[in-house]
Design brief:
The chain has helices at about 10-20, 25-45, 60-75, 90-100, 130-140, 185-190, 200-205, 230, 245-255, 285-295, 305-315, 345-355, 360-375, 410-425, 430-450, 460-465, 465-470, and strands at about 5, 50-55, 75-80, 105, 110-115, 145, 170-175, 190-195, 210-215, 235, 260-265, 280, 295-300, 325, 340-345, 380, 385-390, 395-400. The protein has about 475 residues and is of the alpha/beta class. The protein has two domains: about 5-210, Rossmann fold; about 230-470, UDP-N-acetylmuramoyl-L-alanine:D-glutamate ligase (3-Layer(aba) Sandwich). The strands form three sheets. It has a nine-stranded mixed β-sheet, with helices on both faces. A seven-stranded parallel β-sheet has the order 4-3-2-5-6-7-8, sandwiched between helices. Helix 11 links the parallel strand 13 and strand 14. Helix 3 (about 60-75) runs parallel beside helix 4. The longest helix has 23 residues, at about 25-45. The protein is elongated, with a radius of gyration of 25 Å. About 50% of the residues are buried.
Length: about 475
């Protein structure tokens, strides 16, 4: 059972907050946390010390006012755009204090924008003055930090009605909301930060989770006298004349992720491979000998969809007793997979595994995937933006990292090799999946930052793995 940071429905967060006492102190803490995030952003991006608050009528607007007060004390210029109408009591209190401390009424959008228009309870379409303010903020070209949730986003479903804030960053207060990761949500939250604003531990413990975020990820421990067999022997089967590069990417990424030896088998010639890879033509005898030594297996990258492939999978998957990763053309609905195998489908492949010919809603899909995992006793890494990991008997794990540039041919093959490498080094199945997906995503972010997103290709993910490993030492959402 994996546990990390709980991800909840907006309704669950509302239930938790309704039962709290001392809302004013919570608002003060939340506002301070938002101000701290704003200062870090402005410092990092070398921006002028100017902030515009978008202030709604509820307590989300109160959080914005408190953040503005904290920033005023630090010498920042802060102005507020305020929605007309009656506000919540705490909103009124901190709004009055903001004006008393010489906070300005905004005449134009300027500097960093803090979005405090709408909270997690919002559903439906944004209209009127609030819609106009959101559109103006989005079109301004100025960076936006959303307080708790981008205004206009449904915190449970990820739906966006008429318009929603497109944030550069979102400061999730207490617990992140499921809608961040569904449908259009991921396009609006930007970089996600989860901050503690003082929720009682008991309230968090009793909260009903829809999913979890990894709190920390740790690479396998290295010892000074480690040898290549301790580092892990990975055996892979894949490749074809048409798709010769896929299995090479998987093999090389397994090596780069720490495996000591990688041997790949192919039924068709695939040309030259990296010097460090051992590449053999398929032989039942050699395969059986390799399985006897292997710590982890991967099957599928670049196999193609020939009758030979299907026949091979039906005959030889049952021979695998080690932990294994199944990808690409080896993902077939009628195959029987080894228990606790890691399957790595993208959405289309998952629909095929489930025997579905048409799209279904995300929550329905997740429900079917959970049943699939429980029935088959396998782990599913549902690749996407973001990626969801499903383990039998557990809530999904969401890895909220990555870059759009990773949507490129071969990216999944790199992930396959990485997960196999961590399995070979002794990580549990769930740890290997979470670690592989996280480091893969961070490598994509690093590559995109250096190369730009459109220029990222799959082999770049392997090149930036060292940077990802260094970054992951202190990884926390």
């Amino acid at each position: 059972m994996f546990e990390g940071i709980k991800v909840v429905a907006a309704e669950e967060m509302a239930r938790i907050e309704k039962g709290l006492k001392g809302h004013e102190q919570f608002m003060k803490t939340a506002g301070q946390k938002v101000a701290d995030a704003a200062i870090k952003f402005i410092t990092r991006e070398k921006l002028p010390k100017k902030v515009t608050l978008l202030v709604g009528k509820g307590n989300n607007g109160g959080d914005a006012y408190v953040a503005g007060l904290c920033l005023l004390e630090k010498g920042y210029k802060v102005a507020a755009y305020v929605v007309d109408g009656k506000c919540s009591a705490l909103n009124q209190k901190f709004g009055a204090l903001f004006r008393k401390k010489k906070g300005k009424i905004a005449e134009k959008l300027d500097g960093l924008i803090l979005d405090g228009l709408l909270g997690t309870g919002f559903k439906g379409n944004v209209e009127g003055q609030v819609a106009s303010m959101i559109e103006a903020a989005n079109q301004s070209g100025l960076p936006i930090i959303a307080i708790d949730i981008p205004s206009g986003l449904n915190g449970t479903t990820g739906d966006v009605g008429s318009v929603a804030i497109k944030a550069r960053e979102t400061i999730a207060l207490g617990l992140p909301k499921m809608g961040f990761f569904l449908k259009d949500g991921w396009n609006h939250v930007g970089k996600l930060h989860v901050v503690d604003f003082g929720l009682p531990k008991q309230a968090v413990a009793e909260a009903e989770a829809m999913a979890y975020l990894p709190l920390r990820v740790k690479a396998p421990k290295m010892v000074r006298n480690r040898h290549k067999y301790q580092a892990g022997y990975v055996v892979g089967y894949g490749g074809s004349k048409e798709f010769s590069g896929a299995v090479k990417l998987s093999g090389l990424s397994a090596l780069k992720a720490g495996a000591g030896i990688v041997r790949i088998f192919t039924s068709e010639p695939i040309g030259e491979t990296a010097l460090e890879l051992i590449c053999n033509p398929w032989s039942a005898k050699a395969w059986k000998e390799a399985l006897g030594k292997a710590k982890a297996i991967f099957v599928g990258p670049g196999l193609g969809k020939s009758e030979h492939t299907t026949k091979w999978l039906k005959e030889h998957l049952k021979e695998i007793k080690q932990h294994c990763v199944i990808d690409a053309d080896a993902l077939m609905a009628k195959l029987t997979y080894p228990k606790w195998a890691v399957l790595t489908p993208h959405r289309g492949e998952m629909l095929r595994l489930l025997g579905l010919k048409t799209e279904v809603g995300e929550m329905e899909l997740f429900s079917k995937v959970i049943r699939f995992c429980n029935r088959r006793k396998v782990v599913v890494v549902l690749k996407g933006a973001p990626t969801f990991i499903f383990e039998p008997g557990s809530k999904p794990i969401i890895v909220p990292r990555g870059d759009p540039g990773m949507a490129t041919a071969g990216s999944g093959d790199v992930l396959t090799g990485m997960i196999a490498a961590f399995l070979a080094q002794g990580c549990t199945v769930c740890e290997s999946a979470v670690l592989g997906v996280t480091l893969h995503a961070i490598a994509g972010e690093k590559a995109a930052k250096e190369l730009t997103s459109p220029c990222v290709i799959a082999s770049d993910l392997i090149k930036y793995l060292p940077a990802a490993f260094r970054s992951a030492k202190n990884y926390i959402v």
